[in-house]
Amino acid sequence: MFKRAFIATCIAFFLICTKLFAQSLPDSGQFKIRLNQMGFYPATHKIAIVLADKEAGFSLQTADKHNVFKGKLRKSLKRDFAGNYTFIADFLDYKKPGNYILNVSGIGNSYPFIISSSVHKKVADASIKAFYFIRASIPLEGKFAGKWKRAEGHPDDKVLVHSSAASTERPEGTVISSPRGWYDAGDYNKYIVNSGISTYALLSLYEDFPAYMKTVNLNIPESGNGIPDLLNETLWNLRWMLTMQDPNDGGVYHKLTNAAFDKMIMPDSAITTRYVVQKSTAATLDFAAVMAQAARIFKQFPKELPELADSCLKASLKAWDWAQKNPDVLYNQNAMNQKFSPQITTGDYGDRNISDEFIWAASELFVTTQDDQYVRKINIMPDDNMPLPSWNQVRLLGYYSIIRNSDHLNSTGFKEIPELKKRLLAFADNMIKGIDSTAYQTVIQKRKSNFIWGSNAVAANEGMALIQAYQLSHDKKYLKYALDNLDYILGRNGSGYCYVTGYGSRPTMHPHHRPSVADGVVDPIPGLLAGGPNPGMQDHIKVPSIVPDEAYIDNDQAYAANEIAINWNAPLAYLANAIEALQNDISN
Ligand code: G3I
Ligand code: 9MR
């Protein structure tokens, strides 16, 4: 009796495992044909990368299996990081909108995809709406959040000044109010340094494409108030940032945080004490930069936001002054914890070199005030490097702003603008050099060293840099390669995943993101970009392969490869929306 029950249990277990296994591994054609799972614009280049071992024929088929285009795979000139050649299916010449699959003989069928104008519109909108879903201090209502509605988390109206941040006017334990803002990432803390580059990317999206962004409606609480939704969303964080400045001296707290990371619980259950900790020069300069940029953008809305631009500029100037007096206050969490309590063990964003933060803040103040004293005060071009932006490397953000606004700056006496333009184009040219011979034909997969924690943001930031180069030169080649990096994020890559939650046929389903894990809803919150392949495994979760662009696992404990973060979503939002805004320019 017992034996029979045991056998039956084993069989049931076996069947369940088989089913789970079958669900988790895509059919081989779908796995081996790597393409943008959203699809393609009618008139742009369209390629898929096929993991095959020989040249073969392929065909494009409609949903009713009708062949509409035939071609031959072409072998890549170089090997991928795993050491294999890939095979490229190029169907650029087929331009008719519709629903398709790609069939490769001997390999099988790809995931279905569409050819259509505005093919990235949904992802582009969702990548901004994602910021609404990660707002602190507001309940998410069903009419905006659908099945992801949730209670308010972190009112942050009673935050304690940590001992590391104590001053005469605000001694340890002083209660301040610092509501709103976006949660940084999978955790519930709010960090000024990371908010800096993220808010910049969204404000720049508006600065570069105001006409397009005015048409984007995100169904958020502020929609319809006369301000474009992208800016409405950005304001949620900007208003929080303003509260992080100590009005007494202009310095800005490095972060607002719990003492330690929470368990994987919902925001309203995460109720441990919140602190603002030590002011830092990096946070203060990033704040100064964003507030200067915000001042010139929100000045365009005098009726809707009568005083905001002035407040932002004042805050920026005050922060700049603090940084002049305190040019080297680094945030070193370990050292801080030796002197102060309670111990703080959340993310540190501890930049050790802040010369680029000075360059960025000075550039934004120069652009907004048109006063070149700011860029004269510092060494704006310390060397001829053009380092790709990241949370700890913000030099180019300043260059982008100067170049974007250069028409208004020509009369300022600042003579370096032509040189900056030249360097930006050289930087972009170097990025795209040799890509056509690589295995996946994307800029991100050119270098193994791109595959760090948050590698998908490297792809998005490269895309953003290429679009800056296009805006400056109107040379379409930059747009093509920017779109290739978007193709990468949406499926033409080493793991075969679409790294944006909620989109594509094989999307990230289990991001390291507390609400997505804890809310009881099967689908993760949509529009979030996973960190992406990272062989570093700092989280000690074993990835299936340590080949750099394959080192990805869709596991909610894998924070080094599968967390989400505002500084990754923001350049994605920039890239996807810029591509949508420019879709007619990309077309051949
Ligand atoms: O830059 C070096 C590179 O030169 C080197 O080749 C490579 C080899 O591993 O490492 C690179 O540095 C990595 C750096 O990220 C890249 O930006 C470090 O190893 C890596 O430890 C570091 O990770 C940071 C991580 O926090 C740990 O501090 C991530 O950038 C950063 O995005 C992440 O941020 C966390 C916050 O602290 C807390 N909230 C969540 C957020 C996202 O995970
Ligand atoms: O959830 C945390 C994530 O946001 C951070 O990026 C990561 C690295 O700092 O840490 C995560 O928290 C983990 C902690 O570091 C170690 N214990 C497990 C936590 C995840 O549940």
Summarize the structure.
This protein is α+β, with helices and mostly antiparallel strands.
Ligand species? ligand G3I, ligand 9MR
* Classification by helices and strands: alpha+beta
CATH C-level class of the domain at 121-415 = Mainly Alpha
CATH architecture of the domain at 121-415: Alpha/alpha barrel
Outline the low-pLDDT stretches.
10-23
Any overview of this molecule?
The chain has 588 residues and is an alpha+beta fold. It has a domain at 121-415: Alpha/alpha barrel (Glycosyltransferase). The protein has 21 helices and 15 strands. The strands form three sheets. Strands 2, 4, 5, 8, 9 and 10 form a six-stranded mixed β-sheet that branches. It is globular, with a radius of gyration of 24 Å. The relative contact order is 0.13. The model is unreliable at 10-23 (pLDDT under 50). Ligand 9MR binds at residues 185-187, 261, 347, 559, 563.
